[in-house]
Amino acid sequence: MYDLNQKTIFVLDHTQYFSISSEDYIALDYLKGKTGPSNDAIPSTSSGLQFSKSLWTCSVESSIEYCRIVWDLFPRGKLVRFIVSDTAAHIVNTWKFATQNMSHVLNAMALVGVPQRNTQSSDYSVIHGLRAAIEALAEPTEQQLNLMQAAENTVTTNEKIPNKGRVICVTSARDNPSMKSLEDIFHNVLMQQNTLAMTQKKILSIDHCHLVIINVVPMNVDTLVTNRKQIDLSSCLSTEIHTSSAPEISNKLTHLIMSHYDLASTTVTGIPMKEEQNANSSANYDVEILHARNAHTAICGTEVLLPTSIKEGAEYETVTLKWCTPRGCGASDMSACPPCLAQHRVTPVDVTSRPSSCLINFLLNGRSVLLEMPRKAGGKTTSHLLSARGGEIFIHSLQITRSCLEDPPSISEGPGGRVVDYRISDFAAFVKIHRFVPLKSKSNCEDNLHRTRDRLHKRSRYFPLTLNTTMVHNLQRNMPWLSNFLRKIAKEDMDKTDEVQCQQNIFELYTAASRGELLPFATMNSNRLKGIKKTEQYRLLCAELEMIIRGYATNSHHKVILENIQNVRAACGDASIKAENENSRDSSGKSIIRATTDSPLSPPHSMDSSSNNASILKANKRNLINAGQRTLFDIVINVERSQNSKRPEFTGRLCTPTGQVAKLYPDFGSKEKEAGSAASVATKDETLPIKTDGSSLRS
């Protein structure tokens, strides 16, 4: 009830100009043996007499056809009023439901009659009708009156009742400045009415009004008024201008009603009907119907191709569907139809034509018709169904893609190649975690909803449906730390303690990968792992863990864990991660190795006098305590250094005092003298200068 199409008001210009002919002549046919009346005022041709409608008749017929379509498709809730403007505004009907019907409007229009051509008065203007239209928009409807009464009974309620509407003015102007003057007058009166509504309780302020001006001219007559798309003159008024010849007003209003009420057109082709003159022969006819646009958009599937075309003389597209074999409307007849996605009322565009009348009577007699449409891959499929219930005709949008009700995948049977390893329990737990709970306070409801949607969308990006397509969830039973790791990662308020535990788990994974241990798969198909190296298995596992962490990443601790997983993935031979890490290290200006070696958490140098076993154990203990402040790469480097520090120290460095030169092979010359006493020449000792600083030789 808050849309612009809740209230629609037609303002019809009843000035002298609309009494002229539309110049669209219609020939008269007479029965054999009868002649028409001789009247010099009626033009005649060689084939017989002809006449043309006035601009007033064309305007009234088109506007009444507009409201007929509205009342056929929306029996309740969409209200249409008529105001005739000449020397004053004449109200045709009101917002009451008793006056919202074709009979009331047609009888009132018959009393108004065609404008008098010979009447001379300066008071004839369409502005009277526009003023009355604004006042009519401020009047509350029956539903708005109920809301106003409910608001009066409730003292604490201060909610404003929405009030929007559309005004369609059928008039004729001289040029664009005249149209601009008409818009300015309408805007000024609208602002005055809203100011008046603030002081009175019985009328409503107009939140927004859509003014549509249709400039009508006789056929084959040029006009200085140009068409203009919808623009906003202010926050409460938007206008658009259309120029049309009198015979084309009906097509123009049909085109506008599709955008005003979100309608679509469907042309049913190939309807077999018997000829009126010859009952033994039949021909195929087409009938155009209007309905809600959702009847077309509800059909899902990329293989669907809606066959659209533009009818001659129209400005909108229509979907062409082919007539199929009719059937009954019983339960046995409908059981073979595909599931229905949506249903909407329909109404024919040309209700007085013989094909439309035959189709309506055929459906009202208890028959239904399937409609076909082509596919992209070739062939046809039944996409829609026409049937009648309770004296009203509906179009049904059928399911043309694979339905979830047919041939569901089995989750309990094993034979036949069916999938039996669905992660049903994991999915149930995922749904339970992301349940919506009503809030006690109504503040920031939209923000909470958007935040929850973003969270669910982010976490559901990666969710393997079966155990056969995931490595992480297959290893939870045989790798105890993995379940705890996933629980820590899923926490939005992950703290430093959780980060340290996750880093220890990642280090266990790195240790197992460096040792070349096999991954303990339980339920995963072993055929999928044949021919895959151990490093490749660890690389795939790290890649899947990285995807899971990205879905739950909310703070800096998740980022640290993500970097550690990427480091392990690079250590397992992932070239892409290696390149990214090298680029990041080069851009930072300092390598990670230098950062770790210069860190105060690194173990002491081996040349230090305190480099004994006790100092090494003490340093390792301190490193484990402070491991949460370092990355995984730092931990790995420190472990390698601790292993290197366990090597035996060079004997020459231990025996030689500081500052002196160690003698290489000191007993080499003495042993030769003892072995060869007869030797005349003694070998000269050779010494090699070795410094005791950090550049000394290592064994």
TrEMBL record:
Quaternary context: Belongs to the multiprotein complex Integrator, at least composed of IntS1, IntS2, IntS3, IntS4, omd/IntS5, IntS6, defl/IntS7, IntS8, IntS9, IntS10, IntS11, IntS12, asun/IntS13, IntS14 and IntS15. The core complex associates with protein phosphatase 2A subunits mts/PP2A and Pp2A-29B, to form the Integrator-PP2A (INTAC) complex.
Gene Ontology cellular component list: integrator complex; perinuclear region of cytoplasm
Annotated InterPro entries: Cell_cycle_regulator_Mat89Bb
Protein name: Protein asunder
PANTHER family, sorted: INTEGRATOR COMPLEX SUBUNIT 13, SARCOMA ANTIGEN NY-SAR-95-RELATED
Compositional bias annotation for Basic and acidic residues: 579-588
Stretch list, region Disordered: 579-613, 672-699
Top-level taxon: Eukaryota
Keyword Signal: no
Lineage: Eukaryota, Metazoa, Ecdysozoa, Arthropoda, Hexapoda
One GO term of the biological process aspect: spermatogenesis
Organism of derivation: Glossina morsitans morsitans
Broad class of where this protein is predominantly found: cytoplasm
Entry-linked Pfam families: Mat89Bb
Localization in the cell: Cytoplasm, Perinuclear region; Nucleus
Protein family according to the UniProt entry: Belongs to the Integrator subunit 13 family.
Keyword entries, A-Z: Cell cycle, Cell division, Coiled coil, Cytoplasm, Developmental protein, Differentiation, Meiosis, Mitosis, Nucleus, Spermatogenesis
